Amino acid sequence: xxxxxxxxxxxxxxxxxxxxxxxxxxxxxxxxxxxxxxxxxxxxxxxxxxxxxxxxxxxxxxxxxxxxxxxxxxxxxxxxxxxxxxxxxxxxxxxxxxxxxxxxxxxxxxxxxxxxxxxxxxxxxxxxxxxxxxxxxxxxxxxxxxxxxxxxxxxxxxxxxxxxxxxxxxxxxxxxxxxxxxxxxxxxxxxxxxxxxxxxxxxxxxxxxxxxxxxxxxxxxxxxxxxxxxxxxxxxxxxxxxxxxxxxxxxxxxxxxxxxxxxxxxxxxxxxxxxxxxxxxxxxxxxxxxxxxxxxxxxxxxxxxxxxxxxxxxxxxxxxxxxxxxxxxxxxxxxxxxxxxxxxxxxxxxxxxxxxxxxxxxxxxxxxxxxxxxxxxxxxxxxxxxxxxxxxxxxxxxxxxxxxxxxxxxxxxxxxxxxxxxxxxxxxxxxxxxxxxxxxxxxxxxxxxxxxxxxxxxxxxxxxxxxxxxxxxxxxxxxxxxxxxxxxx
Length: 489
Description:
Elements: E1 6-9, E2 14-17, E3 25-30, H1 41-59, E4 63-68, H2 86-94, H3 98-115, H4 131-143, E5 147-150, E6 153-156, H5 158-164, H6 175-180, E7 197-202, E8 218-220, H7 224-234, E9 238-244, H8 248-263, E10 268-274, E11 277-279, E12 282-283, H9 294-299, H10 311-319, E13 327-329, H11 331-351, H12 363-377, H13 382-400, H14 408-425, H15 440-457, H16 461-473, E14 477-481, E15 484-488
Parallel strand pairs: 3-4, 3-9, 9-10, 11-13
Antiparallel strand pairs: 1-2, 5-6, 6-7, 7-8, 11-12, 14-15
Helix pairs in contact: 1-10, 2-3, 4-7, 10-11, 11-13, 12-13, 12-14, 15-16
């Protein structure tokens, strides 16, 4: 059955039917991390959101070229055009080379994303590896008259651009309103307007990361890298640009302006933005010092955490809210997510032990199946899809206790839901599964349960109880039933 996918387009502020630009090949560019510290809980949201989008496209038979950048130069400490490069700052404090910082935290980021079961991007370019492309883009913008050089730096002329196009189209801001509420800031004498942003910055004598250019030895502005690298790998027009809501302004607004100034059009058909994760209603982020890193979440080693949380619990927690809504952190919410995640996988396991009838397909099962896909196709509405999966859990539990009967057709459709949606699209897997889907922990538990079964057969109940208790101490619950011994982590 062919399904239509609708995505919310930030630029047009409405849901739009997705039609790929390049005949079945989807071009997706997502803003990746600035690698000067461990990824925090907030970083997991774009990682998981766009992973589900990629998985859904592939599930529907599309080919995807997924590009996610690494920012390793040009991101200044206050996200404007002053201060020290964040990576250079970290390198100076730790007395190491900037690229040592980049390599160390890029590896850590990849490890965290792998634990969250996100698919790697098709291409992962670094800003520092595309200086030539960025210089070329600056030249194009200068030639079109939308930039100017000042003391070795090059700035984008926002007022000139706004007179021909409109600055603020993506974020819904008006330049006139912004100007009326802004005073000139000290240290911006090189700019014609406080809203002008750097395309190229002349490096100060102490600045570590620098490259030669026609204007000075310096470095590219933060906004420039995504415009240059997305065009290189996806073309000047492509399908989707994604990122966090915190990047909407100024980063993505500046990208759109750069693209339009250089090419005459923005070139991006769908802009997608995931919302933030908050703590007590406040944005989580490094700059605010209220963030919890993913390694801390996995280990439980943070003052705000009551316990450690597994990567799949974190993934399930993220998916329980729509990607465009805010998601507030709490231990209670994570504990509830952990329980919900376990219920789903216990039901998936129970499905295989249910005795089936020869009856026809149950309409309720068919409705659940269709409702799950309808939710996913409605702008990735994962919370509704998960709610419908819990309707499937209810049916499985009723069939298990004999309250209802399920047919072979019911089984096949429910099995498809758990395999195709829960695993393939939502990217959830049973804890302890390796990348190939084989459960090393599961194999060990089954082996231990065989020893317990033998002990009970020999009436060595003390040994049987000892094995049960040791498994319980390790967080593995076992339950003896008429059909045999069931276990869960």
